[in-house]
Design the sequence.
């Protein structure tokens, strides 16, 4: 039987393994860590459970369709529910705004809070939808780099409408053309961070991201985010996908322009097809030394990283929900610090995720498990110990003032993850959360394809390659890998 090796068990690695299994391959996933999931990992400390990585879950159908592929019911592996409160927003001047999942309620609330007209808000949301519908079939669901992708009705339609996609203006500029209120502009600018970019640089086409959240909704997977990876892992095991943990791959072997296996500390492992779920940068630099390197792709600016404090908090905060944002006063100052000065801003936007709001067992009774994250630059050798100390102080000061508590005195448990830790636990170059940043209009085209024309039978999936980072796009990358993989010769 044709054998495929997947390097890495991130969400895209597991999903690719399932797609290849369905196609008829015998599949082995080799994972450097002793556990599956990559960035989708979790930990427990003194009665608190924390998801270490992603916290926002959209487009759950991309997970359930993997179960459907094998005619397996997702429950009891995986179940989820939609959130009515999408996100609570707080500003330093005391303003508070809640985004409701019902579009009409959101429009009514936003117009009242920010004095904008229903007409312009609805027009904005309609344009966002249009951008998504025009570009998703080409940019997200297919390989951008195959000629066949361009010979389709969808592509001709997208190209004919290119002027309406706001490719030549920044997201901030587009948002300012629709809204006068700076807080509403900031709220919509935040979506640039969903792929680790700056709203002042990322093109206006990215206003399709709020469409995904507002139209398709936000969800919570029962048991927490970690269950997304674990449920797919268990599905893969049930379909005879083999997992080899503590198995770091050191080299991808290529002979006569074709992959024939990989090497690890335990020796040579033969394969007919290899899929790398590892970040594209170390894949080339470490595993494909001596092979032609895609210079421009590897030099692309990386997405932002994050600094996260996982805090056990010894009381409940009824004013908070699952997702809460405490905005900075100056977004432009904050993004200049992150992308130009490569440092942290003294007034950062703080995101608090509290899964114990949905899963009370995630924290002891009367307590909450806070995942407190600020956007951070990638690791360029900064003094992270000093930055972490400062950021902790700024965050505690800010949240104490907004919530009118002495936050420091409520912290019972602490764990910290910084860009260096993200890089070392998942091999993400510079600790980037989403691979390359989308800080230019060419970013989508410079992202590495899911294949390489210089090496046969080598494919790529995950957040650092096409179509990009974040759980939904990672799952789409696996789908593209499944489509690109040659049919195994043994398969009828
Ligand atoms: P990764 O998760 O990067 O895993 C790669 C795997 O490959 C790792 O397990 C690693 O150990 C393994 N590996 C690497 N090198 C080797 C080797 N040589 N041999 C064997 N194995 C190897 N996304 C969202 O959708 N919503 C969010 O709210 C969100 N928030 C985030 C918050 C944080 C703090 C982080 C870190 C990320 C967040 N993301 C979010 C992004 C999301 O987590 C990633 O885009 C996605 O999980 C990446 O998955 P992946 O398949 O690319 O692989």
Sequence:
């Amino acid at each position: 039987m044709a054998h495929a090796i997947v390097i890495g068990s991130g969400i895209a690695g597991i999903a690719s393994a399932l797609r290849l299994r369905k196609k008829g391959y015998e599949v082995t996933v080799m994972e450097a860590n002793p556990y599956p999931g990559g960035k989708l990992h979790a930990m427990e400390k003194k009665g608190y459970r924390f998801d270490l990585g992603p916290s926002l879950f959209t487009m759950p159908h991309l997970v359930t369709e993997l179960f459907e592929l094998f005619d397996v019911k997702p429950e009891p592996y995986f179940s989820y529910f939609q959130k009515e409160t999408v996100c609570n927003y707080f500003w330093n001047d005391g303003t508070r705004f809640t985004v409701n999942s019902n579009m009409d309620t959101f429009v009514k609330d936003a117009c009242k809070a920010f004095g904008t007209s229903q007409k312009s808000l609805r027009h904005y949301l309609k344009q966002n939808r249009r951008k998504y519908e025009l570009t998703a079939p080409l940019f997200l669901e297919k390989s951008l780099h195959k000629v066949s992708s361009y010979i389709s009705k969808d592509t001709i339609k997208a190209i004919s409408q290119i002027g309406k996609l706001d490719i030549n203006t920044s997201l901030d500029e587009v948002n300012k053309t629709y809204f006068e209120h700076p807080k509403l502009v900031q709220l919509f600018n935040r979506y640039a961070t969903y792929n680790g970019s700056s709203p002042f640089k990322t093109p206006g086409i990215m206003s399709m991201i709020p469409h995904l959240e507002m139209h398709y909704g936000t969800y919570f997977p029962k048991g927490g985010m970690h269950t997304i990876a674990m449920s797919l892992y268990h599905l893969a095991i049930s379909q005879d996908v083999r997992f080899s943990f503590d198995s770091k791959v050191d080299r991808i072997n290529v002979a006569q322009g074709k992959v024939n296996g990989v090497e690890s500390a335990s020796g040579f492992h033969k394969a007919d097809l290899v899929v790398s779920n590892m970040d594209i940068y170390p894949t080339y630099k470490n595993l494909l030394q001596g092979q032609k390197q895609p210079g421009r792709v590897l030099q692309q600016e990386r997405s932002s990283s994050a600094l996260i404090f996982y805090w056990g908090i010894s009381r409940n905060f009824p004013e908070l929900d699952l997702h809460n944002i405490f905005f900075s006063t100056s977004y432009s100052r904050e993004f200049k610090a992150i992308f130009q000065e490569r440092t942290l801003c003294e007034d950062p936007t703080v995101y608090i995720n509290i899964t114990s709001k949905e899963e009370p067992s995630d924290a002891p009774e009367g307590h909450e498990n806070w995942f407190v994250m600020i956007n951070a630059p990638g690791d360029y050798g900064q003094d992270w110990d000093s930055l972490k100390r400062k950021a902790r102080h700024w965050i505690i000061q800010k949240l104490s003032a907004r919530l009118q508590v002495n936050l420091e005195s409520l912290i019972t448990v602490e764990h910290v993850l910084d860009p260096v830790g993200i890089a070392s636990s998942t091999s993400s170059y510079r600790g980037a959360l989403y691979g390359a940043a989308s800080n230019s209009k060419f970013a989508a085209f410079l992202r590495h394809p899911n294949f390489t024309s210089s090496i046969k039978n080598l494919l790529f999936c995950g957040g650092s390659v096409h179509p990009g980072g974040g759980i939904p796009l990672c799952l789409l990358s696996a789908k593209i890998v499944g489509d690109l993989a040659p049919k195994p010769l043994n398969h009828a």
Q: What stands out?
A: The two ends are 11 Å apart (CA to CA).
